[in-house]
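Explain this one:

_____
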Amino acid sequence: MTSFSESWPIRVYYEDTDHGGVVYYANYLKYMERARSEFLRSAGLELDLIEAEFGVMFAVRQANVSYHAPARFNELLNVESALIEMRGARIAFKQHIYRQSDGLLLTEGDIQLACISRDGSVSRIPKIVIERLKSHLNRPEEISS
């Protein structure tokens, strides 16, 4: 599968930090979730419409996250998301969070999503979703910031 990464910017707000002004560790997962949603949106896929039309959702099955350096209040960050695998009922992303000012890698994650039906059972990824993502991944212009 051809892949590329897309970048999604985010600013660290006070509500994202602990009492020391450092981003609380769980909020990096929120940043990654938002970036994955934007990645799908850029491919023309809306999560609510996928559920409405096909009766399936994507749930995080596994998240392996490494923290290298802290982000702090009011910093600008970039979340890089790359779709690295898609088969059966599984989609895997590799994500990195960098500080914009110096490009320092702060956090990285390997995230696996499972496609599930409304009742929670595992379901194959709908063919149209796979086709749309493959088309998005294989478009001529590379996206990387």
Notes: The chain has a mean pLDDT of 92. Strands lie at 5-11, 56-67, 76-87, 90-99, 105-117. The two ends are 20 Å apart (CA to CA).
